[in-house]
Each structure stands twice: as C-alpha cells, then as structure tokens.
Amino acid sequence: MSNTISDIVVKTINDQDKQLKDYAGKVLLIVNVASYCGYTSQYSGLEDLNKKYKEAGLRVLGFPCNDFGAQEPGSNEQIVKFCTSQYGVTFELFDKIHAKGSQQHPLYERLTKAVQPTGDVAWNFEKFLVNKQGEVVARFKSNIHPSSPELINAIESELAK
C-alpha cells in the first residue's frame, strides 16, 4: 500500500477541490483541529511553525474535525472566524472531515496506515509529517506540542532534504 497522499483530493474551507499533489516540493504538517479542545491552544504553536518555516517550504494544513468529544461543532465560517480572531491563524484550513469511523476521509485512511504507529487518530491535534515527495514520514500524538524539539527536528530534517 502506498504511503503517499499526492493522489488525494480535499475540499478547502471555502468548498473548493484542492489536489494534494499541488503541494509537491513542500513539507506538510497535517493536523486535525478543533475549537473546543484542551489542545486548542496548539493553534498558536502551529501558526508559529507556519510563520517560521513557510518561506523554507513548510505548509501547515488544518482539518477541522468533530469526531472527538464533539469539540468542533461549528460551521466552516465559524471555524475560520474563531481561528483568525483567537489565534491569528494564517495557515490553510480545510473543510470539516472525519478522521476516523465509517465516514473516515480518504486522506485520514491513508495517513493512519502509512507510518507507525498505525491505527485510528486518538484525539484532536494529532500531527502527520509529509515529505516533499508526498510521502507520510512521521506521526505525532496530540500531546506533542508544535514547539517540541521532536517535532521541530523532524520538520527541519525534511526541509533540509
């Protein structure tokens, strides 16, 4: 089974189709996000990563998800308003998706099988790192903060390749 995501199409927060192959040559940090989670403050850290590494080729992609504790009940418009007003988010946000279950989005079906540990996303703000070739190379649980050396070292390593 392929561990690349380049063939997958997602919807932007404005309901436009976006092909993940359009990110070829960029390093991606894909995160399932929620507005009412104990980890919601990670939006700040994700935005810091976005600002610090965007010029170097990092793209942070946020996928709102209501699968965990119903912590993302809002509409796309409400989500954008919350993220921009509360955390100054400028990284890309996408249409609300299912990260697990019978309606799991094909992106998360691929992500959760691509690298160890495999299996369902456990909670909001789980992070997947994708290299410039579109291959999933690392997975970080929700408690790994965006400022953690483990995550930053992995991002910097991929950007340097």
Protein model, in words:
The chain has a 5-stranded mixed β-sheet. A two-stranded antiparallel ribbon has the order 1-2. It is globular. It has 161 residues and is of the alpha/beta class. It has 4 helices and 7 strands. Helix 1 links the parallel strand 3 (27-33) and strand 4 (58-64). The mean pLDDT is 96. Helix content is 28%, strand content 19%.
Count of helix runs: 4
Stretches where pLDDT falls below 50 for ≥5 residues?
Answer: none
The largest sheet is: 5 strands, mixed
Following the backbone from N to C, one meets helices and strands in this order, namely EEEHEHEHEEH
* Count of β-strands: 7
The radius of gyration over CA amounts to: 14 Å
Helix content: 25-40%
